[in-house]
Write a structure and sequence with these properties.
heterodimer, A: mainly alpha, 7 helices, 75% helix, B: mainly alpha, 1 helix, 0% strand, rod-shaped
Chain lengths: 236, 34
């Protein structure tokens, strides 16, 4: 284990606490903002899914980018903590991606009349989910060998190539996509900007809290495994 | 209305359960790590 690992572990605990307090306060504000947001004249109440669905997508993207950053730092520095951050990012990213793929079809059923469409955005999102769910399976089925960590790092970095493709695919398909265009400045109705911003900030806080906690879990698992290995090896 | 409640309900419930499981695992490991 790297000599500064205990210091990083205590820093993770220190950082997590204020984020947790902020998350609780933000959740209350967020619930109030969603409840009091204006009702869309075309879609009705179902349009309020807007305040949760895109923020979940941004969380999923962030998680997978974190996996790539952690993987790249691990390849560069060889420090286990970066590999553990990559695992944390992938797991939290998959949780957010799953929720994005649950809230999206609920919204689709209410507005398009069907749960799913093999639209380019939806198809690529499903592919992205499979890529990182496979990453977690790979990590779950193999013991923490350095070779697996290196392979997972390269896999995690390559997987992020799907993110810009997924984001810009609607523009690439120019009007043939069923999924609405990406949000731009001014594309939200009056009074919808604040709930959307609060949704993004709250789910970002939830994302950070989950990553810090998951990273800590991964670091503690490695510490305990290392100690068990040392005990099994016995005195030299 | 039902669709919106379902979307928010599933999101909130999943995140609460996920955080609960993470905290339980963290506490178990922290106790073993002492």
């Amino acid at each position: 284990m790297h000599e500064s690992e205990p210091a990083l572990l205590s820093r993770l605990v220190r950082w997590r606490r204020p984020v947790g307090v902020a998350l609780v306060l933000l959740t209350v504000l967020y619930a109030w903002a969603v409840g009091s947001a204006p009702i869309d004249s075309v879609q009705g109440v179902i349009q309020k899914i807007l305040y949760v669905h895109p923020p979940l997508a941004y969380g999923a993207y962030l998680g997978f980018v974190l996996t790539a950053i952690g993987g790249a730092l691990y390849l560069w520095r060889g420090r286990e903590a970066w590999d553990q951050l990559a695992v944390a990012g992938a797991e939290v990213g998959v949780v957010f991606c799953t929720l994005m793929m649950v809230t999206g079809p609920i919204w689709a059923k209410g507005t398009w009349g069907h749960w799913w469409s093999w639209d380019p955005r939806l198809t690529l999102t499903l592919l992205l989910w499979f890529v990182y769910a496979s990453y977690l399976l790979l990590r779950g089925f193999t013991e923490g060998a350095a070779r697996t960590a290196r392979f997972a790092a390269i896999y995690g970095i390559l997987g992020t190539l799907l993110i810009p493709l997924n984001y810009f695919v609607i523009e690439l398909f120019q009007g043939r996509a069923v999924h609405p265009d990406n949000l731009e400045r001014g594309s939200l109705g009056s009074g919808m900007g604040w709930p959307f911003l609060l949704g993004n900030i709250t789910l970002f806080a939830a994302f950070v809290y989950c990553v810090l906690l998951r990273w800590e879990v991964e670091m503690r698992r490695a510490r305990i495994a290392l100690r068990a290995d040392a005990l099994a090896a016995g005195p030299l | 209305m039902t669709y919106a409640i379902a979307a928010y309900g599933i999101t909130a419930l999943t995140l609460v359960i996920y955080l609960g499981l993470l905290h339980r695992e963290r506490n178990r490991l922290a106790a073993a790590d002492r």
